[in-house]
Amino acid sequence: MWSMDQDEPLKQVAGLLRQRNAIDNEIASIIQRPMTSGHLGEWVASQIFDIELEVLANEPGFDGKFKSGPLLGQTVNIKWYLKREGLLDTTEAETLDYYLVLTGPQSAAVSSRSGTRPWRIDAVYLFDARELRAEQIARGVKRGTTSSMKNQQWVDAEIFPTVRNSLFQVTDHQLELLKLFEP
């Protein structure tokens, strides 16, 4: 037999979604794009790493170009994965120089049941797109959406919180900004 108490969880979720929609609208008004992890990640990375985003969000292969620093003028594809599950969405675009990947906590690619995907930055990785593509071709692994990555590739590409990739040194100011998104 149905009771009104059974509706309480649904009512609670509906109320929380109204709050979330209001927050998402505020964020969208700041970043000038819809509030998704992709758009927000691109905006956050552009602010921290001085990247000029492409005017159109659907530019094939890359999201923007570095405006300063050692990668000045280089193209970048930005990802924000709310968990680092060891997979990377890649592209075959020849115009892409680097992937800049912001991630939340490291996690195995398992069931999401009862899990969460917190909006935070635990680590940042910088991959040379051409080197990565060549390595994946040599290994004969899947490329594109959820492409195969070895754990050592993630380790070697890390630029935050530990600098392991010699291509990019996070500045003190960038470090301060990244820490705003730490757990």
Tell me about this structure.
The protein has 183 residues and is α+β, with helices and mostly antiparallel strands. It has one domain (36-179). 34% of the residues lie in helices and 17% in strands. It is built from five helices and eight strands. The strands form two sheets. Strands 1-2-3-5-6-8 form a six-stranded mixed sheet. The protein starts with 7 loop residues before the first helix and ends with a helix. The relative contact order is 0.12.
How large is the count of helical segments?
5
Helix content: 25-40%
Largest sheet: 6 strands, mixed
- Main sheet strand line-up: 1-2-3-5-6-8
For the structure shown, list the relevant keywords:
alpha+beta; 6-stranded mixed beta sheet; 5 helices; 183 residues
Note the topology.
Elements: H1 8-31, H2 37-49, E1 51-53, E2 64-66, E3 75-81, E4 87-88, E5 98-103, E6 123-128, H3 129-139, E7 147-148, H4 151-157, E8 158-160, H5 172-179
Parallel strand pairs: 3-5
Antiparallel strand pairs: 1-2, 2-3, 4-7, 5-6, 6-8
